[in-house]
Structures are given as C-alpha cells and as structure tokens.
Description:
This protein has a three-stranded antiparallel beta sheet. The longest helix is centred in the C-terminal third of the chain and has 20 residues, at 483-502. It starts with a helix and ends with a helix. The protein has helices at residues 3-21, 51-60, 80-97, 109-121, 139-144, 152-158, 160-170, 199-205, 208-212, 217-231, 289-303, 318-323, 339-344, 365-369, 382-392, 399-405, 456-466, 483-502, 509-523, 525-542, and strands at 66-74, 100-108, 129-131, 175-176, 179-180, 183-184, 192-198, 250-251, 261-262, 273-275, 282-284, 329-334, 350-353, 362-363, 372-374, 413-414, 420-421, 468-469. It is globular. It is of the alpha+beta class. The chain contains 20 helices and 18 strands.
Amino acid sequence: MKLKKVLSMVLTGVVMTSVLAGCSGNPEGDAVKTTQLESSVSDNQNPESTEGTKEAAVETSDGEMSEITVILRTLGTVDEAASEAVEAAVNEITQREINVAVDLMWIDSAKYETQVPMMITGNEKMDLMMYTPNPSTTYNTLMAQRQIMDITDILNEYGPEIKATLGDELFKATSRDGRIYGVGNYGPLTFKGMLMVRRDLADAAGVTEKIENASTWTEIKEALKAISDQSGQGLVNVDLNGSVLMPTPVLLAGENFSDGYVYDNLGDSSNMFMANKKSGKVECLYFNDDVREVLKRTYDWYQEGIVYKDAALSKDFGATLLKNGVGCGLITTTEVGGEQATAATTGYDMIVLNPVDESAPMITTGSLTKFGFCVPVTALEPEAAMKFLNLLYTKESGLGNLLSWGIEGRDYVVNEDGLAEFPEGVTADNVPYHIAEFLYGNRLNVTPWIGSDPDVRQIQQAVNDTAEVSPYLGFNLDNTGMEATLTACSNVFEKYKRTLLSGSSSEDFDTYYKKFLDELTAAGIDELVSAYQEQLDTWMKNN
C-alpha cells in the first residue's frame, strides 16, 4: 500500500473512532480499536515498562515522520482489502507513539523464501523483515550471506522493551562475537510433541478410548489403521517438506512415548544437523539411529495406508489440510498451553495427546532462531525499524493482537474469559483477517485464542522462567567457507526429503535410505560435521 493511502485511511479511522466514542452500544461493533499507550496500563503491569517507548515518541514527535517498509511472513494469502484496515490501524498507533509510518507487506510462506532474497539482492526498500524456517531466509542463511545488519547499537538505544523481555542470555542465540544480529520471537520457548486426531473419525471407527489411553506407537498405529480402513483418511504432513512423524525438534524415538525426546539442533534450520542427546557430539540428523527408526516407521505406516497418500506432494500445511477435510490427524510440535489453540485451527473437535512431554523442558538456540526479526542490509531507516519492533514488544500498544488476529470487533472479539474468538456470524472460513499468534514478536502479549487456558500466558512465562537452558545456547553453525559443500548436501536432502519424510518411497526402505546416506556422504556431509564439531569444541572452550 502506498503511504498516502495509509495516511488517508488512518485519518478516516481517527474520525470514525471519534464519532463512535460518543455513541453507546456494543463495543464489539466498534471499528478500528486501538489502545492509548499512556492510559491503558493494566493493574498488573508496571507503568515504567512503557517509559522507553514514550521517550522514543517524544524524541521524534517534533521531527519529520520516518517511513519504513516491514516484511511479514504469513501462513497463507492475506486479503488485501482486509489487510489495508489492519495496516491503517497499525499506523494510527505507530504515527502517534513513535512518529513512524509503516508500509506492511504480507508474503505467504510459499513465496517468502524466493521473493525476499530477491528483494534484498535487488536492493529494494525494506527496513525490517522476518527470518523464518524457509531455507533461504533462515537466520543462519541470512548471516552467512551477510544480508542482515549488526543491530546491537540501535537495539540498545531504541529497544528497551525488547531487551527487558529477552535479557542478555537469550540474545546469545542471535549473536556472533558479542554483536546482535536478530531478535528472536518471544513466547513459550520449550517444545513438546503433539498428536491430534479427529474425534468424529475416531468415534466412527470405535477407537476413541484406545487413542486417549495410548502410551505406545503400536497402539496409535492400530487405532489409525482402524480409522483409515473405515474412512480412508490418514495422518497428514505437518510441513511443506512432507514430514509426517518428524516434527522438528521433537524425536518420536522408541516404542513407548516416554522414549521420545527434544533434541538441540544447534541453531540449524536446514533440518540436517543435531547434537546427539547421549554424546553431545554434532552429527547429521539422518545418520542417527533414532531418526532412522522413526523414518522406517513412517515408511511402514505409509505402506499400510495410515499416512495421507499425497503428503509428499502437498503444498499445504497439515492444519490447513485438516481444516479442508483432508486427513484424520497430525503430529506436530507445540509448547506449554498450545495444544487446544492449535487443535482449534482445524475446525474439528480433536483428541489431543502429548507423546513427547519432557519433565525437564529445555531452551535451545533453535527456540529463538526459528522465527524472529532482523534488519536487512538494504534498510534505509534502521532506527525507525527498531522503534517499531520495540513497540511490537510493548503489550500496551496492541500491535500484537492487530497483526495476529486483525481488527477487534470485525475479525475477533474478547470474551468474558479474556480469550479471543470470532465474532458472531464470523468463522474461520469467512473471517477477513486472521493469521497466527506465534509469528510476530512477543506472543505473550497476544490475547490467547479460545480453547486455551485463560491463564496460559502466566503459565508459559513461568515455564520459561524455570526451564533448563541448553549448554549450547548461543552456538550457531557457521557455514562461512563451506557454502558449496552445504549447498551440495542440501541439494541431496531436497532430492530425497519429501519421499523420506512422508514414507512414500516406492523402493524398499533400506535400499532407498542407503542411497540417500551414500549421496550425502559423497556430497561432503562428513566434512561439514567435522567442521561444525570443531566450531562447537572451540565455542564450548570459550564459553
């Protein structure tokens, strides 16, 4: 959207807000609702927490307004007409509080990994962008390509709320040589496995109780086989790699649920490396015996019709497939309190289990390098970009709800339990704007979606405060000088991943898997593992 159009819409929004303020009626029917930073500090919030933001606003209030372009990744296509109102509401806040006009550009996941790198190399204006799990826009990839700025100084000056939230220790995840290059999304920072199955299909197959009481993968296999035989529906892929039983970084090892664990991927977003849980040594994920076991199970289940037959070809995430009536269930990762909100996105009543739920949750580098924000080298207004990001981390600004759920009254309302839900007559199928709570900044600032525990944010914060911190937090695999080898190995993984992770190989598993490992070896995977191990040894010695 052009800036003039944004300004016009903001003025319109201000007028409408002023008019509606004098009218009595249902607040859920209000137009754009924003929160005055100075007057909305709740009773349980520290008023001093907004001091840095207020000072930033004062510093620029008499100067020329800064204009920034912010690139946001979404889970699907965003309707332009609906997003324009969100952008206008965002600008009403940012222009008032920090004297910054924001041009928001939403790009869906499928296009993000190709479009954003092209924008950087094309020197297009973009002042703030997200790093994501998409291979070409991971934190590590952007660092290796030298496409993001050192933000240490502007973070110190313009990011007081961000610094107060993350603290020095968590910034280690996105730092190198003591300098900070990214701001990881904050929220529940530990992971666990989650299995959800459509209750209606389980009921029809007579296996609901069996699933609810299951503690082994054999029991789950038998129940899913019954569902598949009765309905023709199987487990769907969790991601766009076709993965069915490998929800990174959870490893569904062993026969019993209690055998599974969460591994430290050492900040790797290529889905190829890990720190071995027993030895602590760096290894390629696919040479690990536990991983091989999980992939063999996937293959066996696919052959028995338990896995969605087009998982390897799917261009939709699992939650989207389920929402569209495809599949009986999904295995994914979630965090404390995330189960019901995740299940709710499917539109079905789901049976939910946590087959991997470790008693000692761990915060890893990958917790903060999966999604987050960085300033690309093409930025013209890095200071203004940091002011915006700091405001996004400020709960009282309301930006978290705006970007996640849209316009209050139109896209969502807050019920008496303090949870967000669709307004009357609005559903997941016809809501104008609805993204997700985990993509933008500090998730703990976002109103939880209906189905969550009303106290989920306090629970999540408590787990973060007590969780174990990985001994490798702050270590990120450095690909400098090894780009060609990494590309060669990545190409091999790209060639095999969809078939392997979905179990859909037409060849015998052992034969196909050996081909995959042999090609990885020929591409130089051992060289990468050796180099990464040397990096880790040096890092451990110095830290």
